[in-house]
Amino acid sequence: AFFASKVEHESKQCSSKGFQRLGSSAFDRVYTANQNCGHAYPTFLAVLWCAGLLCSQAPAAFAGLMYLLVRQKYFVGYLGERTQSTPGHLFGKRIILFLFLMSVAGILNYYLIFFFGSDFEMHIKTITGAISPLLLIP
């Protein structure tokens, strides 16, 4: 909602009429940042859901909240210079990777239980719980 309101605000600030807004770099930056966030959101939801379901809910929820804050940082950084959005982008990629690895660990644990009868769920939850605070390091 914040991103959409920023796009609407910048759109109203443009003096040109119609869908084509030529020469408005502020609108272009806001619109591009909104599109980038919108395109990354389905991937985030998928890995968040899989990590919480297959591995551990608490670290997945923490990583999800961190991701939302990082996307806010990315969006605000994109409103300035494009290079200011790079730390938020890289930080977001790291959180998505963490959630993806949690999902893979949960899937591997399922197959270890199914084929070998070995359950490493407690070990995986301990490791992900210990690693999730490391996401705070920029």
Automatic annotation (TrEMBL):
Cellular compartments per GO CC: endoplasmic reticulum membrane; nuclear membrane
Compartments (UniProt record): Endoplasmic reticulum membrane; Nucleus membrane
Main location: endoplasmic reticulum
BP GO annotations: leukotriene biosynthetic process
Record membrane topology: Multi-pass membrane protein
Keywords (A to Z) from UniProt: Endoplasmic reticulum, Leukotriene biosynthesis, Membrane, Nucleus, Transmembrane, Transmembrane helix
Bilayer-spanning residue ranges: 46-70, 91-113
Database matches in PANTHER family: ARACHIDONATE 5-LIPOXYGENASE-ACTIVATING PROTEIN, MICROSOMAL GLUTATHIONE S-TRANSFERASE
Protein's job: Required for leukotriene biosynthesis by ALOX5 (5-lipoxygenase). Anchors ALOX5 to the membrane. Binds arachidonic acid, and could play an essential role in the transfer of arachidonic acid to ALOX5. Binds to MK-886, a compound that blocks the biosynthesis of leukotrienes.
GO molecular function, one term: leukotriene-C4 synthase activity
Pfam family, one: MAPEG
InterPro entries membership: 5_LipOase_AP, MAPEG, MAPEG-like_dom_sf, Membr-assoc_MAPEG
The protein, known as: Arachidonate 5-lipoxygenase-activating protein
Subunit organization: Homotrimer. Interacts with LTC4S and ALOX5.
Taxonomic lineage: Eukaryota, Metazoa, Chordata, Craniata, Vertebrata
